[in-house]
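Friendly challenge for the regulars: who can give me the structure tokens for this chain first? No prize, just bragging rights.
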Amino acid sequence: MDARVARLDFHCDVVFARPAFSRVASFTQIIEPLYDAFDAEGVRIPSDALCVENGNSIATAKVSLSLSSGLQTFEVRLDGFEAHFLDLRSPQAVEQAKQFAMLFDNAVSHFLSDGLPDRYTITTPTWLTVDGGYDAAEALIRRLGWQPELNDPFRIGAQRVTSQATFTCMNLAANWTASIKIERSQLPDTHLFLLVAAEYRQGSSPEKFVDRAEHVAGIWRSVAGSIGLSVS
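First reply, four minutes later:
Bragging rights claimed.
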């Protein structure tokens, strides 16, 4: 079935093993390295885009950064950090989002006193149009739904898979879990919604952010191919 990507989002959510920074007495100290990380790549941050919010102590404050009219947002808290990229419409925009997320991750992680974050989740919600419209999308979803326990139907290296049109794929050896959701799209002028999310814990493989981002992209491609989508 021929399909086209109408919208792709990219989210990173990191939770620390414990709420501690090694070199921060105040969250305002994080602003300069975040600015420098983006500035080094030629990204000019507006003066009002990077700020400390919600309190005057490290326990209550957070640092937030918003670029491109809120379509790219970043947040650092005592217990973790997040990066969100919305409405990516080209492969170049997706690659830029991965690069910005890596810059942000490196800048924040430099301050952690407890080594690697405890839990790292990358999520890619995608809205697609398909030949045949809603009827074809719903037929695909009915075919996939209520499957019994499966043996890696998407060929992504999972050891156990369960499904009710929402799949949970686990690889115990590599210590990652992938969640896959396939349903009718609620976004106007699109037909199918495909969500891939992968959670990595300490000791997971792959270890580096850039490799994990590519791992999620590989899962996405494998899922799309396995359910019969030819995506352009």
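The helical segments are 31-39, 91-109, 133-144, 209-226. The mean pLDDT is 89. Your move, everyone else.
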